[in-house]
Amino acid sequence: MRKTKLFNYHLIISIIGILLVINSMFMLFCLPFSLYYNEDNWVAITAAALINGIIGGGSFYYSQKKSPSKDLKKKDGYLIVTLGWIFISFFGGLPYLLSGDIPSLTDAFFETLSGYSTTGASVLTDIEAVGKGILLWRSLTQWIGGMGIIVLTVAILPILGIGGMQLFVAEAPGISPDKLQPRIKETAKRLWWVYLGLTFTEMILLMIGDMSFYDALNHALTTMATGGFSTKNSSAAAMSPFIQYVIIIFMFIAGTNFTLNYYLFKGRFKDILKNEEFKYYASIVGGSTLLLSCIVFFALSTEGGKDFWEVIYAEWGSSIVLLERAEKSFRDVLFQVISIITTTGYVSADYTGWTTFATMWIFVLMFIGGMAGSTAGGVKIVRHIILQKNSFLELKRQLHPSAIIPVRFNHMAVSQSITYNVLGFIIAYFLTYALGILVMAAMGLDLLTAMGSVATCLGNIGPGLGTVGPVDNFAHLPDGAKWFLSFMMLLGRLELTTVIIIFTPYFWKKV
Amino acid sequence: MRKTKLFNYHLIISIIGILLVINSMFMLFCLPFSLYYNEDNWVAITAAALINGIIGGGSFYYSQKKSPSKDLKKKDGYLIVTLGWIFISFFGGLPYLLSGDIPSLTDAFFETLSGYSTTGASVLTDIEAVGKGILLWRSLTQWIGGMGIIVLTVAILPILGIGGMQLFVAEAPGISPDKLQPRIKETAKRLWWVYLGLTFTEMILLMIGDMSFYDALNHALTTMATGGFSTKNSSAAAMSPFIQYVIIIFMFIAGTNFTLNYYLFKGRFKDILKNEEFKYYASIVGGSTLLLSCIVFFALSTEGGKDFWEVIYAEWGSSIVLLERAEKSFRDVLFQVISIITTTGYVSADYTGWTTFATMWIFVLMFIGGMAGSTAGGVKIVRHIILQKNSFLELKRQLHPSAIIPVRFNHMAVSQSITYNVLGFIIAYFLTYALGILVMAAMGLDLLTAMGSVATCLGNIGPGLGTVGPVDNFAHLPDGAKWFLSFMMLLGRLELTTVIIIFTPYFWKKV
Ligand SMILES: [K+]
Ligand SMILES: [K+]
Fold first, then answer.
1. What is the mean pLDDT of residues B59-71?
2. B residues 427-456 closer than 8 Å to A (CB)
3. What is the value of ipTM here, to two decimals?
4. Nearest to B386 by CA among A424, A60, A53
5. How far apart are CA A390 and CA A418, in angstroms?
6. How many CB pairs under 8 A join A and B?
7. Of A2, A224, A355, B221, which is the most buried if we count CB atoms within 10 A?
8. Could you tell me what percent of chain B has a pLDDT over 70?
């Protein structure tokens, strides 16, 4: 008789091995770019790919030889997801380390995890000085992370019982909640095709807007992942209005549930428009843009202490000036609103210069996040809807304590346990946030930077407030802060409990 | 047949009438002080007392003549509590307005509601210039508010079903949750005697510490209410260490469940020490004091950029200097920690000068609050315990979805609906907080002031951050901000839902 082990270690090692092999293959994809642009870093990229391939392949081969049972338990799931994300981030940092572009281990790990978690917070102070082969790898980490999130959401999180993700699954094409297993592979594949198709379409549109093939490829990869790594030091600020609008549209799409994007390809527009989460998503974007556009337009018109109505009156004759300013205000706001709510994190204008109120508004958007089932991070809109509806009903329940009044979402009653789970998630999110600020303050950071950096890393967004604002980077933070923020990115990306549960005693007890 | 009305209006008016008569009687209590100190304001006080008495008595008489049914419904309860608090704040502001000490209606309302809600945020820029009769009235508003809160917690909130207050009731002496009604009056009376006795004891101790009778009376009144209004411009900063320690002890007692304080009088110390919420309360105070004392001691020793160990080494010989500094650090920290966690809000040292980390720690304490069943505001410790235990168990439930694992508190299982209610309260608290910051930012306040003012008013604390820090006041805020913050004080004091529920459509529907 064999002893039963707490975890299926061999299978865990074998799957992490596969992840490293995938890493290796994507690194090799960067090689031709490195050679084409005549860069020295091809040696570093090849070496990194080899190390990933050999260690990954070796681990896989070793654990397969032990012929582990295929029986994957829930607990193995938590370990695979968390350890997998950590291991690929260590090994994915090799191109940076070996090429010397990011010589510190802390920085390389931060940058790579920032990639895989689709956060986009960067330690690079001069992005344009880094070789194109390496920058493509940087963009690819985000694209891989986005693919990973799609599998995670469709196939893994609902099984692990993570905060209300079952709600999304009921919506995925070809999946019924009671018969999940058999169709998962098919669904994941379908959504990957959508992801690939959208990336390709955006790239073509960016090239039509006169962007180079290389830049278009990079920005398409990091838009669809809601990642936000750019190959430009100024992010999207120097880009043409056309290109900015293309990015705006694709950020919006990337923040949409990929099942709805699949409907987009199929032309089922009605199904998109009647989705309740989508309605909220579009309304928040629309409402925020309207409100903040007015504020920015007003601020631009009164620059230098001028009187608003006098300016408008004086410019009434040359209405083109007014229109141009209105369009610029609208575009800047729309770009930043969508970039933040979808947790992409590209920057085309500095929102910290838009009055305290507008900055705070943007900051609040950081805690909303995109739709569930997209590549966006953050709390996600569906959870806010459940929260809002439940709070409202709770008041009704208080007046009529004996009545049973369930929350309804997309015309279905949401079970008590899912509602409970969602409330729990939201509280955990804000508690983690509060603790995070305390830790960052203990490391000597000022309040605004602490608030901004934790919010942006936990929400997988990218730009924050204070010294890590939209036109700054994370290079100057102490090493401890970088490791801690990396942990925040991991927590946020894996919906908190996947990681936290590993630290509880229950997890390590045999049952 | 009589038409059934939505509310029992006559009974509501009659009860509010009684509240105004009580107002009037307490105003008359200030009159001898005014006369003794030869102040002109006796006219204003008398006039205010007359107006309160006549309008209150008239309303009572009028509605009694209509002989309303004694049948008080739940909905009437919400209205009485909310409207009652608002009406006495308007009429309680008359002494300020008529004496001219606070000539603006906005300011007078703010100061009075700040009193009744035991918040202690003040618009007075020079407290010592105000007449003693008026200042005593100011202190009395807090003491009345504290009495009101005790009735509210024991008798009213549990019936209205407010966020987990049932948990406290099960603890109150002589109350069993299934047979609540008959003993409520008795319990409330008993706790009022405890309240009165503690106020008197503190006053005597302060006088032993060489404080004048007048100052001792005022500070005893505002300590036991966890109110924090002081008769001194510098609050407690200039007081002797003995007096500071007396205030520390009584703030701690005021933040303790009054049922436990009743045990204190009865000498049932074991019952106090085995109370779970009390253990948390003492631990948070102890832990915070230990941690922050070290930080403040270190900061004081290294003032002017000196090296810590060199200073310690140099002063080792004259150990009295070291000890004095250690005692001062300990006392300052203990005072501020207890003042903030009990939501009293006296100030003996400026915590905003204690490094970002220590300030943030104090700020976090603002969201903890004292024990349920005390006069303290804020979220309250019992709710944090339920939250913490439930979060931990939620992870266990995730691993074993079929198991039913209830939260246990004071060795009893907490029902699912109470847990749910507590989670809902905490979320509502933080949502209100976030919305509050946005509103304050929209009124043009800077981020720190917005964060601090909403936190301190919602938690009924007193001092905040930024321009409303511990050594500042609220006078400079725009009128809109003062009205909004008044609303926040009311929301916080009435446990949010008592007020919010009135704004829902359910409330105004006949059932
Ligand atoms: K991002
Ligand atoms: K207070």
1. 78
2. 427-428, 430-431, 434, 437-438, 441-442, 444-448, 450
3. 0.81
4. A424
5. 11
6. 118
7. A224
8. 93
